[in-house]
Structures are given as C-alpha cells and as structure tokens.
Design brief:
mainly beta, 5-stranded mixed sheet, flat
Length: 332
C-alpha cells in the first residue's frame, strides 16, 4: 500500500514539472518565468519570433504594435528612438530628435528636428481635444522668440509647406486629436529670431480639459463631475468672450469639492502673449496658486490683457467633483 502511494505521487509531480519545462510561448509572446502568467505580449519596438525571448529591433527597423513576430524595414533606414515609427525619407541627415524635458541647442545653421507624439488611447476617445507642443528656452526664462514650422508629411517643413506654424516666445503648436492610439512623428524647422543659437526644450501637453465659454461677467458650474472627473487631473479652460487690448482684467474663481467637501488647491495659468491661445504650465507667463481651503477663492489680475477672448486655464492635481464660480471684471 505504501509503495503504491509513493509511486502515484511521484508520477503527478513529474507531469507538473514536465508541463512547465515543455511549455513554449507562441510567436509574438515571450517567456516571463512566472508560473501563473508564463507568457507576455512583446512590447512595441521589440519582436518575439517564438523562441520564448524578446529582441530589440535592429537599426532602421520598427515594431509599431505589440505582439510583433518580426520588425519592419524602413525605407529611410532611420527610426525614432523608440523604434516605432519610420523617419521620412526626405528628412535631413543632420535632423535631431527632440526628447521631452531634454535641453538641446537650436540654431540657424541646423534648424531641423523631429519628435514622437502620442495621442493615448484615452485621448483618442475624446474628439476635439488637443495635443500642445511648446518650445521653452533655457532655464525656463521664456524670453527668446523663435519661428516654428511643423509637419507630419515632410521631413523639411518650411514657410511654403508647413501644416502648423508658431512664432514668438513660448512658441506653441496646437495639434488636433488624431483619434488614434498610434504614435506620430512631427517634423520641425525651428529658428531663433534674435540670436544665432539658444538652448531649448520641447514640452508636450495633452489638453484633456473641458472648455467653458461665457459672455456675462459671472459664470457658475454646479457640478463638473460628468465633464471633468473622468480625468487624472481636473482641468478646465475658461474663455470670456472678448476684452480690449491692454485692459485691466480681474479674473476671480471660487472652487469647492462638491462630493467630499475636503480642501481644494489649484493653479491658474494665463499668457499675455498674442501667440498663446491655450495657456498651460508650459507656455503661460502668469501663474497664480490658490489657497488650500474647502472653498478656495483666488484672483488672477493682469494690466495688459491682449485683445480678443480672455482665456484662463485651471489645473487641479487630482480628481474633483467641483462646484465652480467665476467672475470677470474688465476696466481700461
């Protein structure tokens, strides 16, 4: 009896061990070494041929999707740093890749750049939203103007063939939602206007906010839950219909958490620069931080508002179901 039990248990263990050893992940997946989740889909920029391993794409090839079994050869033999998009054939050989938050020299002699932009799957579901790309000078002084020509269809954008154009300090291009989760490469020609060269950094911003436009001097939103609480940050753009040039504007806002009734803290962003339509932390030259209170009220005041719509953005670094009241006072 004892011998029979021992032999039976040994046989079961041998089967389990054999199953683990002999199990092979299918092509497009790699072996994780984890018994509960033995296989994982190959990430973008890599390929999994079916031997249980993941490999980086070689130079000049890309893997734009998860689970690829081989990389695709680029006609230009050049890719972005992530090996997910082929660089266009007519892109100058001296063109450099701009990486978010990394400063580099922009010069008259070599104006060509490119960068990878991603409308996330979340943003792809939100029509009419924007992706911003801003060029900020060294140490974030924001005082060196540039002219920017940008395009996704040519590696040498210029004043004759650009898709997007910006000029001035904190030069910002606003890219409409591509409604796709695949990355795109944006190509730039960037020239500083007052110097031969300068240190700049490119900063992207996924504009996920709700825009509230109003024509009266007061405006109230009783509950922003359905509009804003789905996002990681509570973001909103408030646009007052029009103000005269160089007028004094007092923008006052009161925010209350309408769900938990806990303390609230937020920042307001505004730009007096004519080339900035959607102010953010990357391109605003006036920033006001609110007090940390249950009903948090603060004012943004400028004495030299630009002519036209008066736009202020609010960013709360968490999700709130907020009650918001806004008032605008304009004087000459």
């Amino acid at each position: 009896m004892s011998r029979t039990i021992i032999v039976s248990l040994s046989f079961i263990c041998l089967l389990l061990v054999t199953n683990i050893i002999c199990f092979t992940c299918p092509a497009g997946y790699f072996d994780t070494g984890n018994y509960e989740h033995p296989c994982s889909s190959c990430s973008v920029g890599r390929y999994c041929p079916g031997d249980g391993k993941a490999y980086d794409c070689s130079n000049g090839t890309i893997a734009p999707n998860q689970g690829m079994v081989a990389c695709t050869q680029c006609e230009s033999k050049r890719t972005n740093i992530y090996k997910t998009v082929c660089i266009l054939v007519n892109t100058p050989t001296e063109a450099r890749e701009a990486i978010d938050d990394k400063f580099d020299v922009i010069s008259v002699k070599n104006p060509y750049w490119f960068t990878t932009l991603l409308f996330t799957e979340y943003l792809a579901e939100a029509p009419s939203k924007l992706l911003q790309y801003t060029f900020v000078d060294q140490k974030l002084k924001r005082d060196t103007p540039v002219v920017v020509y940008a395009s996704t269809v040519t590696g040498k954008p210029s004043k004759d063939n650009y898709m997007y154009m910006a000029i001035g300090q904190n030069a910002t291009i606003n890219i409409p939602n591509s409604k796709q989760s695949q990355p795109i490469v944006m190509y730039f020609s960037i020239v500083p206007l007052e110097v031969d060269s300068a240190q700049f950094v490119g900063k992207s911003w996924l504009w996920l906010s709700k825009t509230y436009q109003f024509t009266t001097s007061t405006f109230a939103i009783e509950n922003t839950g359905s509009d804003l609480a789905q996002y990681v940050n509570t973001e909103a753009l408030f646009v007052y219909h029009s103000v005269p040039a160089n007028s004094k504007v007092n923008f006052t806002i009161s925010v209350e958490d309408n769900f938990t009734h806990e303390n609230v803290k937020y920042k307001l962003y505004y730009s007096t620069l004519k080339n900035i339509d959607y102010p953010t932390m990357n391109n605003a030259n006036i920033v006001v931080e609110s007090p940390f209170k249950k009903i948090s009220t603060t004012s943004l005041v400028t004495n030299n508002a630009k002519e036209g719509p008066f736009a202020v953005s609010m960013v709360i670094p968490t999700t709130y179901y907020a009650r918001i009241k806004v008032s605008v006072n304009v004087s000459q």
